[in-house]
Each structure stands twice: as structure tokens, then as C-alpha cells.
Amino acid sequence: MRLLLVNPNMTQAMTDSMAAIARQLAGTRADIVPLTATRGFPYIASRAEAQIAGGVALEMIAENLEGIDAVVIAAFGDPGLIAAREIFDVPVVGMAEASVLSAAMLGERFSIVTFSPVMRRWYSDCVAATGLGQRFTGVRTPQRHAPDVLHARTAQRAALIELSRAAALEDGADVVILGGAPLAGLAPEIADEVPAVVIDPIATATAQALALASLRIAGPSRASRPIGKSSVGLSPALSRIIAAESPLPG
Amino acid sequence: MRLLLVNPNMTQAMTDSMAAIARQLAGTRADIVPLTATRGFPYIASRAEAQIAGGVALEMIAENLEGIDAVVIAAFGDPGLIAAREIFDVPVVGMAEASVLSAAMLGERFSIVTFSPVMRRWYSDCVAATGLGQRFTGVRTPQRHAPDVLHARTAQRAALIELSRAAALEDGADVVILGGAPLAGLAPEIADEVPAVVIDPIATATAQALALASLRIAGPSRASRPIGKSSVGLSPALSRIIAAESPLPG
Amino acid sequence: MRLLLVNPNMTQAMTDSMAAIARQLAGTRADIVPLTATRGFPYIASRAEAQIAGGVALEMIAENLEGIDAVVIAAFGDPGLIAAREIFDVPVVGMAEASVLSAAMLGERFSIVTFSPVMRRWYSDCVAATGLGQRFTGVRTPQRHAPDVLHARTAQRAALIELSRAAALEDGADVVILGGAPLAGLAPEIADEVPAVVIDPIATATAQALALASLRIAGPSRASRPIGKSSVGLSPALSRIIAAESPLPG
Amino acid sequence: MRLLLVNPNMTQAMTDSMAAIARQLAGTRADIVPLTATRGFPYIASRAEAQIAGGVALEMIAENLEGIDAVVIAAFGDPGLIAAREIFDVPVVGMAEASVLSAAMLGERFSIVTFSPVMRRWYSDCVAATGLGQRFTGVRTPQRHAPDVLHARTAQRAALIELSRAAALEDGADVVILGGAPLAGLAPEIADEVPAVVIDPIATATAQALALASLRIAGPSRASRPIGKSSVGLSPALSRIIAAESPLPG
Amino acid sequence: MRLLLVNPNMTQAMTDSMAAIARQLAGTRADIVPLTATRGFPYIASRAEAQIAGGVALEMIAENLEGIDAVVIAAFGDPGLIAAREIFDVPVVGMAEASVLSAAMLGERFSIVTFSPVMRRWYSDCVAATGLGQRFTGVRTPQRHAPDVLHARTAQRAALIELSRAAALEDGADVVILGGAPLAGLAPEIADEVPAVVIDPIATATAQALALASLRIAGPSRASRPIGKSSVGLSPALSRIIAAESPLPG
Amino acid sequence: MRLLLVNPNMTQAMTDSMAAIARQLAGTRADIVPLTATRGFPYIASRAEAQIAGGVALEMIAENLEGIDAVVIAAFGDPGLIAAREIFDVPVVGMAEASVLSAAMLGERFSIVTFSPVMRRWYSDCVAATGLGQRFTGVRTPQRHAPDVLHARTAQRAALIELSRAAALEDGADVVILGGAPLAGLAPEIADEVPAVVIDPIATATAQALALASLRIAGPSRASRPIGKSSVGLSPALSRIIAAESPLPG
């Protein structure tokens, strides 16, 4: 199998660390094809940025879909996920959604711990969008934003352990999701210090992409596929996919 | 006052008819500045198209914000609305959201009637996003999609009256929203034949934009504004706005 | 246009200050016709009082409806609002509901800040009644009730600023509603000190009443209007309106 | 024990039939003290009427509270219930609420069957107000309103059996509530013909009032009691109760 | 009447104290038939234990159903309640569910106070299962688990009063439920020290069992009864009941 | 890896067909260890049966846990799932829950199609328990129960295709789940005839068990694990697991 790992952030180092984790998880089962955005933002932290980066993600997927069995949108917050699912005929998985739905199979309540208060709103909105808000005990973050996002995993390690413990012991989370691409790989390192299941979103999203791809589900004839549309200004591959004929409901 | 009426669809005729209704509603209170998308789709009907068109809408707003008191995103489905609200310092109103929230002040339950089954999912998702799903009695549409969307208002008039009556009498809607830019202007024409309040989304969105602008609310210092970000590939005006410094929460 | 501003509280000074704000907002667009209850309570603070004052409000509206384009029920908590909307053929707007629904167009989450813990329950119930409870971050109030309600706006100004800041920074509210007639006019005075949109309920309700009236919606034939009823002991005007024939559903 | 059975409708015949059922249920356990409204409406069918009749009910209770152990508000729709519960120190039970909460102990899902489509909205809103809307399968009624409400029980008997069967077999209701004072006493007569538990609201409300009274719960010191208020125009007994001192929260 | 009081815990002392309270409440109205589990756990505190103890409860009920008018499952958390309600033709009441639904008739919001943090999750899940989660202000418990569960009522009395006061004054609960069999009988003792209605689950469940039994509802023909099934390894009485023919829906 | 496939139904033929599908999905990645219940029911169709069979499943798992990496509870309806997750330190997956959560990654709305109206209530309750009820479009079944459950897959094939088409085209389901062990293997056979994603619960549950096991999550130290308990009458293996010491919260 081949998994497309689309990082809609422009930070290559994040892509590299996430691709390494995905490869470790996939082993010999799948090739990981990583891509880094060349337009947009160094890292996405708001709905406005996700609006734009989600469009970029659609183009990245469309241009690289050949021979791909499943897609991982490799930014916690899942820019473009719902849109991608409408038009591509392979499973598309988001890091936040896959983490939340997996957490729901690993415990009753789950929490998100992340590196900056700046991410709180967007992540909360992502959980609400899944429909599982009532099982969510909230986002815990350090009180202040540290500008060096890339090294949050090491620089904030002690604080993140403390926040994860509080999520388990005070908020009652059975599962703690370490949200945000900069924290990729931290979960197994701190799991022993947290009295909850701790999950790594990129490992989880990779596992889910493999799981869904293994079901060999056909997609093209779905009644819910949008009707074909002409367009202006899109990349040729995306424009072609959106223009494709599709069955009308009814 | 000056209202920016941003049509993220590429169909000029829709912009013209919506601008005429907005001008009639605004009278001497505001100048209406209409814009039509030059990239994207003739009309938006899916989440995938809204993902892209929402990014286009952000650029259209950013480039034309000078001297503007409020913005109307003039496509039912509100592409880019949540994103725009995060970064622009004037009220931003969407046709669907403004209709739904106004409907909630005009009755207990509301319905959407529109011209094609193709729109059903996107519109339903818009209502759910407001949080008012429990007061929503559903979308009623003709059974089949008619390709000539632009003339739906006249070609399907009888069917739309029948659907509106069913929304009131069978579904219990107190308010019927005639969703979709192609139906702009139909509401007052058929109101007498429907035993419910019938509202026109573009008139309603214009009224709401004027109402919110009249409150003269200052926005720049909001704690929820995203922190400034560098970017690549955005229009200069949008890039500048997203790069602006903003207060951090905490 | 003419707006009826019905204060179901018996405190004339509250009516005066609210009428002044409504007039400032309406400018030349509408005459404001203020009324103060002559039965009931100095100010309403519970469901029990709202039950009675809501009936008083219905009579006040019925007796003064001639030539009126929209009604504002000028007590946060909206006594009689749902009832009034069933039987009167003009838009009826409540201060709490209009604030909540407007807040939902100005941000993702909203909070209420008010002058006394005594109001907390009633206000929370009002928000729940709109259906938007999931976007509500709660009511913040001083810990103790101060008997001089009328001067809360000046006497508690510093505390109210602090509560509003906490609503934004700790609870994550994008919009803070300064609830309760005694706080009318405070919002613009403290907006600069609060990192959120701060809204004044009477200004907001007036803006919404003008917005809904500008839609020129006809009401009389709604399927949801109650059937006509005879009555005993009501004021003649209200009795007449409730006795009016109306179309039966079905 | 003594139960006050307050009919906020003005129809004495309804009070008589409900009092007979309450007496049969209570047996020697309690005296039933029935009261019929002398102001208001022959029977209540809307929120507007309930606004007024609820105020009447408060006065009826206040004036007759001496020696009473619990109160039943004997109109399905429960006018004044929430208000009464705030200010009176004995349990107050409503026919709709008691039926809904009892139904939730007798099965997973419940339905309301009633005699006229005119009642549908008000009854649905009552269920939503309890918070149990997700277990509610809806209101089933005859398609047309029959003006002779008082004899609905006999005149519509066959239709009501058919509607109850449909509620069970098509909607999946485990419990069918025969809503509305005119149907008092019908439940045991048709229970054998309906494959669901069928409950009579007045019997159920009486049973609940006895149950809550038997718990001998003290009420006066509740933190949620409203603070005392002066008033104008209320009956002396109600005015006295609302003026009573009460502990402030905090 | 005869009420079966089934304690699915194996602790006879708990059964004795609960039976005493049930007898006091029932007076001459009903005989209380208490049973203590002979398999399972000393006291149930988790979903896993409730899975097993619920099956034990079904067998205890089946074997003792002769001449019984209603059943109380006498463990807060209600093991086997939903299952029992499907197959037995008398009302079956659970301590947690009866407390929650009664609380909903005694105030707007309710809280649970209990003796150990160990119980928090299970009790919260019980409330959510009723559908009334939005009126629930949470579980308050001492911070640490005290192994001597049986004497929690006396040993933790001061702490439980403090927690109940906090539930009322800080969380806004109108009603406090003292959850857990070991606290049976505490409610009337501490009611005067708590500014909320305080209810005792076993008294409340007994009152509800009597109330539902007094409605003399017939059950056998319900469409929702499961179809008859053969079984292996069940007690003969339970096997017989589950094998009974029943009407199919449709 | 080794997956325990626990069929809490007593029908060996169901176990065989499910094990075959699980083996096909797992390929060389895992050994499938199938077990069939020796107590309980031929097939489970109600909450009462699930109460008992869930206890049986706990014992089956406890006795066969040695060397197991994940557990699949192989009955749609997931008897014992929540209980098992509390006490076993490997991932435990249910057919219904895994199908619902996977469906949520494959589309916006999902439906269940099954072979008998008898299953409707139990399956609906399972979906509600996940928290995703708002994305669920309901259960579609044939109108009548056919006693030969085992051959439903072939005997009702045409009807099940028709129901699946209706779920997609009328109810708007993006994903159709073919619920119930007797339908194992049908999904790929009919997928081409249904304009929706069609998923097979046993294949999906196997894929999810493999995915969760691949995350190599450690469980023993979770704060949510119940405290150790003595017991009477349980199988020795289960008794030992429930008696194990575990960390207390706090």
C-alpha cells in the first residue's frame, strides 16, 4: 500500500518527524509518501489559516493521488478533511479526527494536551465537529505561548507531563491526545508518567489510514458525491476531479 | 455606511440580483459594494467547493476592506465565514447563518426550502454549525436537480411554493428560509401563499449586517484573534492582515 | 417606523435610560415609544416574577400596538417573549435573546456578565431556551448581591470590567453580554478594557427590532398562530387579539 | 395528606373528571382539593395562554396553600410549573412533566397522543423543556381540530387507539402518554388495545405528588429561592409569598 | 402491595439499612421483601462489576417475582435496570434513575454527592444514560477513597455536608442526591445544614416504586418486549421468562 | 499478533463465518483465536440478553487473555464492551462501536441496515451510547422478523440491497453498516449496488483491533481502572483480574 502523508504546514522538519513515525508504524505494510506545503503558513493555528491551507491540501492530494491507497492530512486540526472526503475516492484521515475517534475506542472520556494556548479554540472546534463533544474533557495547555513551536516537544516536556496528569486525575480523561504536529513522537516517551492512555496523533492517523484502506471500500458511486463543476484558477488535477461526472441523488 | 457584498460564486447575474435586493433593503442607510469571484466556481454546492471559495472570499474581503463597515458573504452556505470573522475587524455576516439566527427570532422552528437536492447536505451542515439544529425541521427540495440553476426562481416557482407549504403544515416550521442565491427575491413574491414567515436570505443578511454595524463594536483587541503569521502565496492584502500582531490570550 | 419599548419592570428610571440608548441607536429611523409596567415588580429576577410580568407585558403590548412596527421587551430574561411572538403580527424582540443571537454572529462563544448572583439562574435558563447553550461559557457575577440594583452600573464598574476580562481570558468568550437593565449603556464605556466584543442588550435588541421590521414580513396567516379563544379577566385589547380567528393547521 | 389540584383552565367539567381520577388513585392516602380557574381560558392550548394562565395558577396556589402537602397543576402543558416551584415550599407537580418523567421509568422511548393538532407545538415544547427530548418519539394527533374538545375522549376514541398503536408500532414508543385534560380517564380503557404502556397524566401526576410529598422534603432554606420582592397588583397571598425574605446564595 | 428490594451487592448490612428506610417510607402501604446477592461483589463500583451484578439481579428478580407489585434495584448505579425493564411485567425502579428523575421534579439542576472518588465515573455515566445530563451539575466526592465503605455515612458526615453545601452554593444545584447505598438514611439528618433539597435514593426509589405500582399499568403486550429465546446456563426462572412468547413488532 | 475473537452468541456457524472474514482481513498480520459462548443465547437481540451475555464475554476473555494483543467482541451490539475496557489491559473492540466510529471517518452520516425489526431498538441504543447519535440516520430493516436468522444473508439479500439503497438515497447516509453477525460477509457482495460506502462490521472491527494494537499502548496504570475487588461466583481468571490492585485516582 501507499499512504500519502500531506503536511499542509510549510515546515519541512515537521513533515520529516511525522513521516518517520508513520514509517515506523506502517513497517512493511505501506510506503509513506510525505509532502510539505509550499504555500500557506509555517504552522496553522486558526480557522482562517485552516481555510486557506485546506485548499492547498486539496491541491496537494489531487496532484499526487496516482497509486495512493489512503491519505493522511498531517496537521492536527484537519484542514480540508471534510472537503477532501467529498471528492477523493480513497479514505482520507485527519490527525485530530482519527485521534478523537480512536480515543473513543480506548476509553470513555478523552482530553487534548498541547503546547500553546493559541491552539485551544481551533482544537476544541475540531472535537465539536466530530459530534463527540460530550465525551471531551477539554484542552489543557501551558498558560503562555512560546514562539519556538518547533522545539516545544523537548522544551516543554515537563509541563506537558504535568498537564497530561492533570487531564487524567482532575478532568477524568481516560485517554490523553498529545495534539499538534510539534509534539509528534512524544506520547510513547511520557506514557509511563501519565495515568491514562496517551496517544500520538500521527501514529494514530497512520494506523487508521491503514485500517480503512484494508477494508478495500469502493467509493466512486456514492450518492453523496458532489455533482461535477467547472472551475477557474484551480490546479489542473484538482479541477479535473471536481469536474468529474457523478451520480445525482434520487 | 458601506457594506461589502462578496459573492464567492463566479456568476455575475447572481451578484446583480442580490445587490439589487440589498440596495432596496439598505435604502439611504448604506452603499452596497458588490464583488463577484473571479476564481472558483459558477455556484458553490459542496463542502469541497466551499473550502476553496472560502479562501477566495478572504482575499476578496482583504483587498476591499478600506472604508467598509460590514461584510456580507453572499452565498448561502457561508464559505469562509468563520475564518473571516477571526481576522477582520468589522462584522462579517453570512446568508445562511443570518437567516437561521433571524428565523430564531421570528418563530420557534424553521425550515430551509431550496431549488435542488444537491444542496441538501451542505445546507444541513450549515445549520448544525450554528448550534440551532434542534429547532431545524429540515431541508425540502424538488426530487431532481435541474441544471439551469440561474432560472430556478421562475422555473420552479410552483414547486417551491408547494415545498414551503409542506414545510409549514407538515414539518411544523414557523419560518421558511428560501435558501440559495438563485432564489434571491422570491420570498416576498410567494409569502402570501405560505402559512409561515418566509424570509429572503440576502435581504436578511443585509439587515443583519446593518444591525451589527450600527452597534459600532470595536474588534481589534479581542483575545480570540489569532496571533500574527507569516505566509507564502496569499494576496498581499490578506497576507498583511494575517501577519498583524495581536494580543496573546493569557 | 415606530418601536414599542416595553419595560415589564416597574422602574421608570430603567425605562428612561433604556429609551435613551434605543433612541441613540435608532436615530431618525424610528420613533421609540417607551412604556413602564404599572403592575408587577420593581425589577424581575426569577422565573416566578417573569411568569407574572410576562402576562403584564402581553397586556402592555396589546393596548399599544396601533401603528407599531416592532416590539422590544426591555428586560433581560425576556418575560412573555415566546407568548408575544405567538399572537402579535409584528416582530417581537427580547433583550436576552437578541443579545445571544447577535453574539452568535460576532464570535464563536459568548458569556453573560451581570451585577448580582441572584440573576444567574434565570439568565442561564434564557440562554438554554434559545438552543445555543453549547456556545455559552456561563454567567459571571460579583459574589454578593448588592441591594441598590439601580446604581450597579457605576457602583460595580471595576468589578464588572474584571468579570468581563475573566470571561474573555479564562472562559474563552469572544463576546461578552452585559446582562440586565441596570447595566444599560455600560458596554461602550468599558469596551476598551475588555479583550472581547462587549455588547449592550438594549442597543442590540433595538438594532434587531429595526432589522426584523425592515424585512417587512407579513405574519397574520401563519399556520402556527393559536386558534381563537374566548377569555375572562384579560384587558379588552389582549382579549380581542386572543379571540381572533386564525387558520387551523392542516 | 392534602393535595391541591389546580386546574388553570376554566372548565369545571374537566376539573370534576380529573378530581375523580385523582381521588381514585389517592384512595385514603390523601384528600384532593380541586380548584377551577375563574379567569383565563376554557382550555389552554398555546404558550400565550399558558403565560397568562400560569400567573392565575400562582395566585390560586398561594391563596389555598394552608395545610397542603403537594400541588398538582392539572393542565397538560404545566402552566406556571417552573415559577411555582421557585416560590412554594411544597412539591409542585405538572401533568406533562410528571408523565414524561414517569414514562422515562417505564420504558426507553415515549410518545404523546392527543386530541387535536392544535396542541402539538405546546406539548412538544413541554417535553423539550424537561431535557428528555432525545427519548421522545413525537406527538401524534388527528389531522383536524374538532371544536368540541370536552367530548374528545368519547368522540375520538377509535382514532386515539389507532394513533396510540402507530406510536408504538411505527415510532417505537414503549410508553404512550394520552395528553390533555379532556382525555383524563381514557388510558385504562384502551390499554388492552395498545402494545405499549399507556399512561393517564392526571393519575400519574397524582401518584407523583403523593410520592414526592411522602419524602417529607424541607424546602424553605434552598439557595435557589428568589430573594424577596415587593409587588403591585398581585393577590395578597401571592404578594406575601414573593415578598418573603430568603437566603442569598453565596 | 409487595415490593421486592433487590440489593445486587453482597453486603447484608446495606440491605438491612435500606430495607428499614423503605419500610418507614412505605408504612402500611406495602410489604418490603429484601434480598441480598449471594454472588458478585461486596459493593459495586464500576461498569465491569455492574455488568456481572446486573445479571445476578435479573436472576434474583426472576426467582422472587411471584406476588410482587414492583421491584427496586437497591444499588446506586442501577445494575441490570434497563435489562430488567425489558423482560419483567411489573415496574422496575433503580436508585440512581429514580433519584435523578425525582430531582428533576424538585428543581432545575441537581448534583450527586457521594463518599468516594472511585464512584464518580459510574455515577456520571448513569446520569448521562437518563438523558438529563444537561441539568446535572456533577459529582462531588472527598478527594481520597476510604476503604471502610460501610461506615462512610458516619465517618465522613462533616465532609459530606460540606460537599453538599458546595454543590448548592458553587455548582448551583437545587437538589443534592446523596448517592450510594452506604449513605442510606443520611439525607434527612443533614437536610437542615444544606441550602438545597437533599434526597435519599432508597427512600426516593421506594416512593417511585409505590407510585408506579399504584398506576396499575399492564405490561405483557408491549411491542417492545424481546421475542422469546432459548438459553443455556440461566437459572430456571429467568430462563423461563426469557423464553416466553411475546408479540412481534409490526 | 494474536486477536481474540469472542462470539458471545452460542452459534458456532456465526463464529466460523466471522473468523473466516477476520482471517482474510488480517492476512499474515495476526492469528485469529475464535471462541463461541457455551452459555447464554443462540443469538442476542435485546438489552436483557446482552446483560447476561456481556458477563459471559468477560469470563471468556479473562480465561483466554494469555498472549493476546487485542480483543474483538464479535456480536453487533457489543455485549460487555464497556465493562471489558475497564478491566483488561489490551484494546477491546466491539463490532457496533468500531463500525460506527469507522463510518464517522468515511462520511458525514451513517445508517444501519439489518435483517429483522427485532434488532432495531438495541442497535439504536448502541449508536446513542457512542455519542454520535446526531450523525445517525437510523436503522432500516425488513418489516417482519424471519425466524431463520442464520440464513438471513442469502434469504433476504434483495431486501437488504433495497434497504441499503433507501438508507443512502432517502435518509442521506454516506455509509451503510450491515449490522448483525448473520450478515457477515455480505457488504463486499452488494457494495456495487448501493450508492454509499457499505461496511462489514466484523471486517471493520478486525481492522480496528489491529490498528489499536499496532499503537502499542500501555494500559495498566490508568487512573480510571476500578479498584481491586473480592468476588464470589466468578470464574477464577476473571475473579483474579477484578481483584488486582490498581492505582486510586487522586
From TrEMBL, chains A, B, C, D, E, F:
Domain of life, per lineage: Bacteria
Pfam families named in the record: Asp_Glu_race (PF01177)
InterPro entries according to UniProt: Asp/Glu/hydantoin_racemase, Hydantoin_racemase-like, Iso_Racemase_Enz_sf
UniProt cross-references to PANTHER family, sorted A to Z: PROTEIN DCG1
UniProt similarity note: Belongs to the HyuE racemase family.
Descriptive protein name: Aspartate/glutamate racemase family protein
